Amino acid sequence: MYYMLREGWVCQFLEEDLKTALPHRLHFKDAEKIRRIVDMVGNFANLQDRQALDYGLNIGRGGVWLQLTEEQYALLKTDGSWMRGKSRS
Q: How far is CA 80 from CA 21, 25, 54, 74, in A?
C-alpha cells in the first residue's frame, strides 16, 4: 500500500510487481486510519518498520507491505462501487 497526503490521505494499492495499481483507492482525513489498517494487516517485523511508517506519515508519503486475505484482495481489485454511499471519515 502506498500512501500520500493530498488534501487528506490517499491510499493506493499495488500488485506485487509494485507497478500495477489496483483500481480501488481509499481516502482518509486522518493518518490514524492508515495506522489502523497497518495494525490489522501490516507486515511489521520490528521497531524499524514501525519507525518507517511514522516517518512516512510525518513527511506525507510512504509505503508498507500488507498481508491481505483473498477476500480483501478481491475487494481492492474492484472499482469500489460496493463502497459508494458509506462513510469514509
A: 14, 8, 27, 11
